[in-house]
Specification:
Elements lengths: L1 H12 L15 E2 L2 E2 L1 E11 L4 E5 L5 E10 L6 E4 L6 E4 L10 E2 L3 E3 L3 E2 L2 E6 L5 E10 L2 H5 L14 E2 L8 H6 L3 E6 L3 E7 L6 E3 L10 E5 L15 E12 L4 E6 L24 E5 L7 E3 L1 E2 L2 E2 L4 E4 L7 E4 L11 E4 L5 E8 L3 E5 H8 L4
Antiparallel strand pairs: 1-27, 2-15, 3-12, 4-11, 5-9, 5-10, 5-12, 6-7, 6-11, 8-9, 13-21, 14-15, 14-17, 15-16, 16-19, 17-18, 18-19, 20-21, 20-26, 22-23, 24-25, 25-28, 26-27, 27-28
Length: 366
Amino acid sequence: MWRTLQLLVALALAIPTTTSTSTPTALQAPQSEQIGTEESVSVHVGGKTRTTTIDRAGSGYVKVHFTDVRLMKGDVLTVSNPAGTESYTYTRDLKSSLTATIDETGFWAMSITGSTAVITVKSMFSRVRADKITRGFTDAEFAARPSTQSICGTNDYKDATCYQTSNPTEFKRSGAVAKLLRNGSSLCTSWRVGPNNRMLTNNHCFTSTTGIEVWFNYQCPTCGGTTSAPVTKVLAASVLKTDRPLDYTLFTVNNFTAISSFGYLELDARVPAVGERMYVVGHPAGKLKKISLKDGTANCVVRAVKVNGNVAQSDISYMCDTEGGSSGSPVLSGVSHKVIGLHHFGGCPNQGVRIDLVAAQIGSLL
């Protein structure tokens, strides 16, 4: 009996394995995340009131919807932060801004990072009305919400900047990774794939580009910091291909030149080796960019390959820490520093879709 128990324990500890055909359990959940809420407002700008502010203390961003837009010829509607360091302008030709999401009643402006949006028109004869906003949850609201958290033991991910000196290659690769704000209230992660105007995320993050913001450089400039470096934001433009079984969406963005300097990632179209060093770059819980490089005191490694995901044997698994919002993050080899997986499930072990399978479907589009 004692010998049998010893054998069972040994088998349980004998990880990683080369393949698994287990089906994802309830713990293995897609890791998108709700990070904000919509509110109705009634804020008029024009006439004697040519500038006003919308403030939501403690929110990480404010995104404003405008209706009854009547701009005089040559006038400009500006939405900015109080310092003016983040600013978006809109004229009568809304499409030309490349940052307006137009709908039946008006348009959504690009979000403003921080808790305050300043709205300004130049002419007293122009009129606009803000009828609703989305804004980020406060710390207290975040604490009160459940999260699809997959912290495997202690939380070992760190600010991307923390690895600038010790792991310069990993840090450099992180530049291509961006935060996705979906319809002003939820998020995933995305990243540039290849040198052209191409981005990858999960199919469960979105299949239509309407209302999708892409935030580059949303990261603290110092290790352990609490504020972001200047953020470059663009809107998703078009979906080139999306697939539910392999849980990917390949898309383009408006104003590609604005984000072309952030670098790009390459695909490593192979089944990685069990035990291969790896890391995940993303925006867990909407936080400033993190690199998940360690599993305790050891490096993260591929624990198993050909694990069941949405379809049989589609995934790899690992114990790198992730949270809601990590969906769509690139899983990179610590050997080639190319992408070997597209993170989509939490559950410890966490899982990413095998990039060799994705590459077989999108390679000709890159």
